[in-house]
Design goal:
Elements (H helix, E strand, L loop, with lengths): L1 H17 L5 E6 L5 E10 L9 H12 L7 E13 L2 E4 L9 E12 H12 L4 E7 H9 L2 H6 L1 E6 L4 E7 L2 E8 L3 H12 L3 H13 L25 E3 L11 E3 H27 L9 E4 L8 H9 L3 E3 L5 E2 L11 H10 L9 E2 L1 H9 L5 H10 L4
Parallel strand pairs: 1-6, 7-12, 12-13, 14-15
Antiparallel strand pairs: 2-5, 3-4, 3-5, 7-8, 8-9, 10-11
Helix pairs in contact: 1-12, 4-10, 6-7, 6-8, 8-9
Pfam families: FtsA, SHS2_FTSA
Keywords: Cell cycle, Cell division, Cell membrane, Membrane
Protein name: Cell division protein FtsA
Length: 384
């Protein structure tokens, strides 16, 4: 009931902003129940002239889906990685080619049938048709990765609230995906326990740390500050009095928070990511490095921790390929939401990206004052 109520509230907000009724929706699916595997399909070309048609492609993909899965699992995605026509490998689109034997390598993303069924039921009870269920890591990749990164090979790490999605692209295709049951909320809980404050206060402190420029004091360098009592005295304190915390905290040591509380949890997350990369068998095949996105990507020290633990180039991924997004939405926290919009509008792709008429429509319908907050609320309504 709580899930349905939350979805209903988000739906009503989205409908008010768009000025239209929502009849169908794409739903983001995440959680530790997500798993993946690669499969292979083979069929004989049906046409007498041996020209491969779209129906042959559909048949070979269906053949790749014919894997043994327990009844508790449901297939979310069947993503072709590459085709083979009569032993000719590396075929991206076989339609129009001639051959006798058509093969495909695919990546299957599966989820817990019960979790998927319950999520679908919550949405359908509100009178909304579910057009598709989308793995969160796939949605994030659509918004944050470039085609070049995917082609060269890249690891996407989406640090969400309760989980971290890992998606590995090799030769342009999603080839491995998994979900780690640790996310940004664990960092917040660590701060709450270490400082003996509420989760709400800990979250505010975490966000402030992510917005505060890194101090040289963390590197054991002396820095003069206005509040220092003498030359060379170290000070890495941050002022949290302006956050309005009920615990009435004022000054905190940035070094203690980052090195003593946040850093160990980040190291744990990226150590687990490293194990997933090793388990995938694609280690060394991702020269584009690592792209970190999701709300947790804004955690102080995240990029440095990833570089140290994974020994690869790392940068933060922001939503791309959509014009008209305001600055407040151009943050890692909204990558999955923007990716869902891209997934739903993938038929409208152009070389310059995608432009959603809906954004301009919304802008025309609301006053300029407060527009940023309203647009943020709209995008949040699509967040998992």
């Amino acid at each position: 009931e709580e899930a349905t109520a939350a979805i209903s509230q988000s739906l009503e907000s989205a409908e008010r902003m768009a000025g239209t009724q929502v009849g169908h929706a794409f739903i983001c699916v995440g959680g530790a129940h997500i798993a993946s595997q690669n499969s292979h399909g083979v069929v004989a070309v049906a046409e007498p002239d041996r020209e491969i048609g779209e129906h042959d492609v559909r048949r070979v993909v269906e053949a790749a889906k014919a894997v043994s899965l327990p009844s508790s699992r449901e297939i979310l995605h069947v993503l072709p990685r590459g085709y083979v026509v009569d032993s000719q490998e590396g075929v991206v689109d076989p339609v129009g080619m001639t051959g006798v034997r058509l093969e495909v390598d695919t990546h299957l993303v599966t989820g817990g049938a019960t979790a998927i069924r319950n999520l679908r039921k919550c949405v359908e009870e509100l009178g909304v048709e579910v057009s598709g269920m989308v793995f969160g890591g796939l949605a994030s990749s659509l918004a944050s990765l470039t085609d070049t990164e995917k082609e060269l090979g890249v690891v996407l790490i989406d640090i969400g609230g309760g989980t971290t999605d890992v998606a590995i692209f090799v030769e342009g295709a999603l080839s491995y995906s998994s979900v780690i049951p640790i996310g940004a909320i664990n960092i917040t809980k660590d701060l709450a326990a270490g400082l003996r404050v509420s989760l709400e206060s800990a979250e505010k402190i975490k966000l402030l740390l992510g917005q505060t420029p890194r101090l040289p004091a963390l590197a054991d360098e002396e820095i003069p500050t206005a509040g220092a009592k003498g030359k060379g005295e170290k000070s890495d304190e941050i002022d949290v009095s302006g956050l309005g915390l009920p615990e009435e905290l004022r000054m905190l040591s940035r070094r203690t928070l980052v090195e003593g509380i946040i850093k160990p949890r980040l190291n744990e997350i990226f150590t687990m990511v490293g194990l997933e990369i090793k388990r995938s068998g694609f280690g060394g095949m991702t020269p584009s490095g690592v792209v970190i996105t999701g709300g947790g990507a804004q955690t102080v020290g995240a990029v440095e921790s990833a570089r140290r633990n994974l020994a690869m180039p790392v940068h933060i991924g922001l939503p791309k390929k959509v014009t008209g997004l305001i600055d407040e939405i151009m943050t890692p926290a909204y990558t999955t939401s923007v990716g869902l919009l891209l997934y739903g509008a993938k038929g409208a792709e152009t070389e310059s990206g995608i432009k959603f008429a809906g954004f301009s429509k919304i802008r025309d319908k609301v006053q300029i004052k407060g527009l940023a907050g309203k647009l943020i609320d709209l995008v949040k309504s699509f967040m998992p």
